[in-house]
């Protein structure tokens, strides 16, 4: 088992866009193994490489007993939406309702470079959107409306795990379906 420390809000790696994977080699397979082991140990519904300090476009998921991974993901979002509770391993004990697409079609590759196409809805779709956002340096709190984002930041500042750094909250460049800014 290769459980890695999970980077917390305030770590600059969480705000950087991860780079495309161009080598499907032993190192990538080890990263996927580390991500999976760390996610399962946490436990979480998903984990993106930047959350363990690796700036590559890869994430894992564990939803309803289905464990998987996707490298260099691209998502096509449905027009239908879902609003529900969302949390993040990089923001411990923080949960807020977050608007997401109800379903997605995710394309990318597995760790061996084989093309993948996954049709997902509800919780798996939410996890895939959340983890893909991580790869773009976006956190779920960036997708919250102004009042919820302010409440989340207050909760973060008052948390035991929050460090001395004063990170900035960015506004998502992706559609928030008319909610949030």
Which features characterize this protein?
181 residues; alpha+beta; Peptide Deformylase; five-stranded antiparallel sheet; two-stranded antiparallel sheet; 30% strand; iron; peptide deformylase activity
SSE blueprint:
Layout: H1 26-41, E1 46-48, E2 58-63, E3 66-77, E4 81-88, E5 91-101, E6 103-109, E7 115-121, H2 122-135, H3 146-158
Antiparallel strand pairs: 1-2, 2-3, 3-6, 4-5, 6-7
| Beta fraction | 25-35%
Computed structural class: alpha+beta
Oligomer: single chain
Ends: how far apart? 41 Å
Averaged pLDDT: 90
Q: Order of strands side by side in the largest beta sheet?
A: 1-2-3-6-7
CATH fold topology: Peptide Deformylase
CATH architecture annotation? Alpha-Beta Complex
Radius of gyration: 15 Å
Q: What is the strand tally?
A: 7
Q: Low-confidence parts lasting 5 or more residues at pLDDT below 50?
A: 164-169, 176-181
Largest sheet: 5 strands, antiparallel
Shape annotation: globular
Please give the CATH class.
Alpha Beta
SSE succession? HEEEEEEEHH
Catalytic activity: N-terminal N-formyl-L-methionyl-[peptide] + H2O = N-terminal L-methionyl-[peptide] + formate
InterPro entries: Peptide_deformylase, Peptide_deformylase_sf
Keywords: Hydrolase, Iron, Metal-binding, Protein biosynthesis
Binding site for Fe cation: 88, 130, 134
Can you offer a commentary on this structure?
- It contains 3 helices and 7 strands, in the order H-E-E-E-E-E-E-E-H-H.
- The chain is α+β, with helices and mostly antiparallel strands and 181 residues long.
- It has one domain: Peptide Deformylase.
- It starts with 25 loop residues before the first helix and ends in a 23-residue tail after the last helix.
- The strands form 2 sheets. The chain has a 5-stranded antiparallel sheet. A two-stranded antiparallel ribbon has the order 4-5.
């Amino acid at each position: 088992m290769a459980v890695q420390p999970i980077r917390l809000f305030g770590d600059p790696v969480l705000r950087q866009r991860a780079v495309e994977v161009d080598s499907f080699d032993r190192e990538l397979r080890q990263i996927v193994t580390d991500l999976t082991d760390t996610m399962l140990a946490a436990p979480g519904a998903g984990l993106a490489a930047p959350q363990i300090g690796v700036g590559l476009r890869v994430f894992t998921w564990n939803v309803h007993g289905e464990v998987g991974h996707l490298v260099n993901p691209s998502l096509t979002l449905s027009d239908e939406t879902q609003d529900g509770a969302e949390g993040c391993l990089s923001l411990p004990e923080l949960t807020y309702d977050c608007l997401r697409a109800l379903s997605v079609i995710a394309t990318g590759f597995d760790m061996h470079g084989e093309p993948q196409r996954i049709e997902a809805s509800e919780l798996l779709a939410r996890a895939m959107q959340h983890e893909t956002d991580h790869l773009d340096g976006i956190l779920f709190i960036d997708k919250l409306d102004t009042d919820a984002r302010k409440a989340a930041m207050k909760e973060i500042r008052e948390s035991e795990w929050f460090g001395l750094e004063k990170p900035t909250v960015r506004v998502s460049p992706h559609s928030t379906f008319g909610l949030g800014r």
